[in-house]
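anyone seen this seq b4? input:
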Amino acid sequence: MTEPTTILCAKEGPVYRITLNRPEVLNALNGVMLREIAHAVSEAAADPESSVVLIDSASDRAFSAGIDVAYVKDLEGFGVRDIGRELHRTFLTLRTEEIPIVCAIDGLCLGAGLELAISCDFMIATNRSRFGLPNIDRGIPAIVEAALLPLAVGIQGARELAYLGEFWDAEKAERRGLLYAVAAPEAFEAEVQSLVGRLAAKPATALATQKEIIHKWMTTDLESAIDFSINTVVLNWLTRDQQEGMASFLEKRDAQFKDAQLKQDDDWKGESS
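predicted toks r here
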């Protein structure tokens, strides 16, 4: 893929930072931006040196104001469906790639921008941020990953956001369960770095497995989700990190995680045979 034009990407140790970079339109999402975000997240997930993705914004006013109206205003019929599917492809990538994703929000987080944020594993925001689905005031119902809102804020919260189109401030968003944490602007970067650092210190294979399991908890029936969890943890049990984690507990010492999976570590296979 060519150099992205709507986002900035930077590797900062174990953190892969993706910065939404259309500040002139408050990071309104168009097709190019959606595809570039999805590609960057997949690239980070495939990078053995990256343990966490951080998505933030180059705008000092917004994380994302939603869909780019110029991108969708002339669509008809199947074109509208194609845009919905393109949004879903990108957001599903965030939800299913096996790397934890932190969304850092400073300012407006609206419409499809909120759907992008809620597709991440953690949402952290400044106390001046605002959240909402104002598209209802333009005659447009909320769709796509807005379907996650009942899981995040309950059915009444989802109806409030989708029916009324009114904004929640950060305090209310945190109180209703939408946010992991809220910080003052001057403390925001430190709070973000604390979270990504704690995630980066965890065994990556176990985190990837846990993310996959939680996705199943959210998207399948209870018994199927539990059965998937039981079967999936067997694979994690065969990793060096799983063995090291248990050994370090019994030996009362700090774990030294290597994230070397059994199938990738020929030396360990020889030792264990």
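The chain has eleven helices and ten strands. Confidence is low (pLDDT under 50) at residues 260-273. kinda curious what u guys think
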